[in-house]
Design a protein that fits this description.
Structural class of chain B: alpha+beta
Mean pLDDT of chain A: 83
Strand content of chain B: 25-35%
Mean pLDDT of chain B: 78
Shape of chain A: elongated
Oligomer: heterodimer
Number of domains of chain A: 3
Number of domains of chain B: 2
Radius of gyration of chain B: 19 Å
Low-confidence stretches of chain A: 1-15
Distance between the termini of chain A: 56 Å
CATH topology of the largest domain in chain B: SH3 type barrels
Distance between the termini of chain B: 33 Å
Largest sheet of chain A: 7 strands, mixed
CATH class of the largest domain in chain B: Mainly Beta
Strand content of chain A: 5-15%
CATH superfamily of the largest domain in chain B: Ferrous iron transport protein A (FeoA)
Largest sheet of chain B: 6 strands, antiparallel
């Protein structure tokens, strides 16, 4: 993958030039990206971040690559997404910038155009969704806009390809942008002073100075790596002086000047027209976030998603692949072959033993997680493109407010019911590090994945409806209670919900399919090693006898504190390492009548609150860092046993027998 | 900050948080009621009672149209109301103000309230924007008429 090879040697020049698509969220950047490139798309993390970016060869010019940057609302960059966009602008390989704007939000678009044009990079403005704008009844004069901005302006409709040939032509030979916003005198003085001492960059030093003065962290890091200590200190000092001269934050002064400039251009190029009545699309979008009407729509949408990922993917497909294809055909064949070829017992076990690289690692990655991931990426791609996700965030905001989160947390939480490992991956769509850690923690603790749900429902439904109700209540109380407590303890303040409601659109299946395939490629190359490492760890634990020691050590806790038979300790530890072993153990014990109704309930509560599986722990370590993973596991495990033990005593005290 | 309450019986203005009348009260001093230190009339302290706050909010939503235009925030507007933004309080922080600005919500812009619950959704130009009530409180508006 292109961006990964660049992560390895960042300074190394990449042959060919990069054209960056930059723009606000929901302007159709991704669709435009797929229109300007072929089918071979690489999706991966931008170097040093967890932000997903897509790159692909340009279809209109051999040797050029197109980079689809994440949505940027405005500069200075604040979110991780915006910082990736800012970093892309400072990339020395940058050939041109295509600012993708939504034609019907021309005022918002122009403010960002003016910011981007300050860089002096070769630049084109693509006014996308020109058709939607036309239906709002506003005429834009691209010629006049182009003259005012000093860059080519092309009206496009990415979904049907309108204007794309012209856009490709303009990208090939666009001149450096020349637009110039005049800022108040004190700002201009500071910019001139700073710009004189800046190292050469791909962007104009004026724009670098402006970004630095506005406090952009990417510009600051870039300069910190190139200026010596005294020069940097002087720059920081100059910024502080400007702030005190202005008597307020620098960005607010820059914003006001740019807004005024944008409004002047707007008045000339797109006089305000009459606004129309809301169309069907708008009305549908409003119904989907209506406090009453929206709820059944949300329940239906989330249920459909859960059914597709949790039941069809994690149930039907996994069953087909794991129990039928792998367990009955592939694994016996490979085991037979390895046993014939490999002479040593230990080496054979390493590959095809109970915790072997193939029988555990690859089987899990290919037969268990791959179908879940595929259905998940498809469903998520459709939801992402439809513009529905922000509406779910609006409807569920209040629930998550009590846990110190906002409505955006609903997506990982619902997905967690399918697979906590995958849901951990989607926590990167959340606003900040604090929200991500909090949701990751709650996912690991109190959200039962489909495997756990299968065991819980299978065993508790046989006891009584009351057992299921008690289990749900305990898990829910722990979820909200611990969420509330963790929100107080984790430093940082809650991010309030401020989000745009894009119009609802019908997703384009072609784009969703290409993105799904590209994400799957990323999964196969990046996540499978996690599973291999996981099976290696377990293999080593088993071989060295530590596994047996852990079970021995857990036994007194399980017997004395939880009041369960000793064999459940093995089922718990096994369930964490290999979920099929754990579930099979519990089902066998229940079938043999070894567990009473209260014991089953206690076992299920503990199992649910337990960290789901070793893959999820490794995923947490990969996404949040080893320290965070250790902290999460260190809190979740004792908590699971504590709640289980308290539940056992309470059930005993009230004499509950099912 | 001292938030004064007005006794609904005698009109005396006092600070309910000080609990002047609570010392002589035989019941728990931390209840959500508050007594007027002058006449002893029992009132509800909306600062302490969640339920009272919710009821007051509901009433505010209903009767917001009837109130004076001065000193209003976005959070006070009823559904379907249209207004002009007059100011965004610096208390929101420059980062958030910058985001609102990028969405088009700046002093001088026209807004229409699409819905109030569970989160306030506004139409700003052609952008639909969801913001929490706590943020809307910091955005001053004026309505025509």
């Amino acid at each position: 993958m292109d961006c990964h090879s660049r992560a390895a040697g960042e300074s190394e020049a990449v042959s060919g030039a990069v054209v960056a698509l930059v723009g606000q969220p929901n302007v159709g950047k991704s669709v435009l990206f797929h229109r300007l490139t072929g089918m071979r798309v690489a999706v991966g993390n931008y170097p040093g971040t967890t932000v997903e970016v897509a790159t692909a060869a340009a279809s209109f010019r051999p040797g050029w690559r197109i980079l689809d940057t994440p949505g940027v609302l405005t500069f200075p960059s604040r979110t991780e997404d915006e910082q990736v966009a800012a970093a892309a602008l400072l990339d020395p390989d940058l050939r041109a910038v295509v600012h993708v704007g939504d034609a019907k939000h021309l005022r918002r678009t122009l403010q960002l155009t003016l910011q981007l044009a300050e860089t002096g990079l070769p630049m084109v403005l693509a006014l996308n969704m020109a058709d939607e704008n036309a239906s709002w009844g506003v005429d834009i004069d691209p010629g006049q806009l182009s003259a005012a901005l000093g860059i080519p302006v092309v009206e496009t409709v990415a979904t049907n390809g309108h204007g794309l040939a012209t856009l490709a032509e303009r990208i090939r030979d666009c001149p450096p942008a020349a637009a110039h916003v005049r800022y108040p005198r004190s700002v201009e003085d500071a910019v001139a002073e700073l710009a004189a001492g800046l190292p050469p960059a791909r962007v104009r030093s004026r724009s670098l100075a402006l970004l630095f003065l506005a406090g952009d962290p990417v510009a600051e890091r870039w300069l910190a790596g190139r200026l010596d200590g005294t020069a940097l200190a002087a720059a920081v000092d100059r910024r502080a002086r400007l702030t005190s001269e202005l008597g307020g934050p620098v960005p607010s002064v820059l914003r006001a000047a740019r807004a005024a400039a944008a409004d002047r251009i707007l008045a000339a190029a797109a006089p305000a027209g009459p606004s129309r009545r809301p169309r069907l699309q708008t009305r549908l979008g409003r119904a989907a976030m209506h406090p009453v009407l929206g709820l059944p729509i949300m329940v239906a949408a989330l249920a459909a998603m859960f059914w597709f990922v949790g039941v069809f993917g994690a149930g039907v497909l996994v069953d087909l692949l794991e129990t039928q294809l792998f367990a009955e055909a592939v694994n016996p064949a490979i085991t037979g072959w390895v046993e014939r070829v490999v002479p040593f017992d230990a080496a054979r076990d390493l590959i095809v033993g109970p915790y072997g690289l193939w029988t555990m690692g690859m089987t899990y990655a290919l037969a268990l997680i791959l179908p879940i991931v595929t259905t998940f990426f498809l469903a998520f791609g459709v939801l992402e493109d439809s513009g529905y996700l922000p509406r779910v965030a609006v409807l569920t905001n209040r629930v998550f407010k009590s846990m110190g989160l906002n409505g955006r947390a609903v997506i990982p939480m619902v997905l967690g019911l399918g697979c906590v490992t995958m849901a951990t991956l989607t926590t990167r769509t959340l606003d900040g590090r604090r929200d991500r850690i909090l949701v990751t923690f709650l996912l690991a603790l109190a959200i039962p994945c489909s495997a756990q749900l299968g065991v819980v429902v299978g065993l508790l439904a046989g006891v009584s409806a009351a057992a299921v109700a008690i289990w749900s209540l305990v898990v829910l109380v722990v979820l909200v209670g611990v969420g509330w407590l963790a929100a107080q303890l984790i430093p940082g303040s809650r991010t309030p919900l401020v989000t745009e409601m894009p119009p609802l659109r019908i997703p384009r299946l072609g784009g969703v399919a290409v993105r799904t395939v590209a994400r799957l490629e990323w999964y196969l190359t990046e996540v499978i090693p996690i599973f291999l490492v996981g099976s290696l760890v377990v293999f080593a634990l088993d071989l060295s006898g530590i596994l047996g020691a852990i079970i021995d050590w857990a036994e007194p806790v399980v017997v004395g504190w939880l009041g369960l038979p000793a064999a459940t300790a093995t089922a718990f530890v096994m369930g964490f390492l290999r979920r099929d072993f754990g579930a099979a153990g519990l089902f066998a014990m229940a079938g043999a009548g070894l567990l009473t109704a209260p014991q089953l309930l206690v076992a299920m509560i503990t199992l649910t609150l337990f960290v789901p599986c070793i893959a999820s722990v490794l995923m947490i370590a990969r996404e949040r860092g080893a320290g965070a993973a250790a902290a999460i596991v260190g809190v979740a495990m004792p908590l699971a046993f504590a709640v289980g033990g308290v539940a056992a005593r309470v059930l005993d005290a009230v004499g509950w027998t099912g | 900050m001292i938030r004064l309450a007005t006794c609904s019986l005698c009109g005396h203005r006092f600070d309910p948080a000080a609990g002047q009348a609570c010392a002589s009260c035989p019941i728990a001093p931390n209840c959500s009621l508050v007594c007027c230190p002058r006449c002893g009339h029992v009132g509800v302290d909306p600062g302490r009672s969640r339920l009272a706050r919710a009821l007051l909010r509901l009433q505010a939503g209903r009767s917001a149209t009837g109130r004076s235009a001065a000193g209003r925030s976005l959070a006070d507007l009823p559904r379907d109301a249209e207004a002009k933004v007059t100011g965004v309080a610096p208390a929101l922080g420059d980062e958030l103000i910058g985001r609102l600005h990028a969405y088009g919500l700046t002093p001088g812009c026209d807004v229409a309230v699409i819905q109030r619950r569970p989160v306030i959704v506004l139409a700003v130009d052609r952008t639909e924007l969801a913001i929490e009530e706590d943020i809307a409180r910091h955005i001053a508006v004026e309505t025509e008429s």
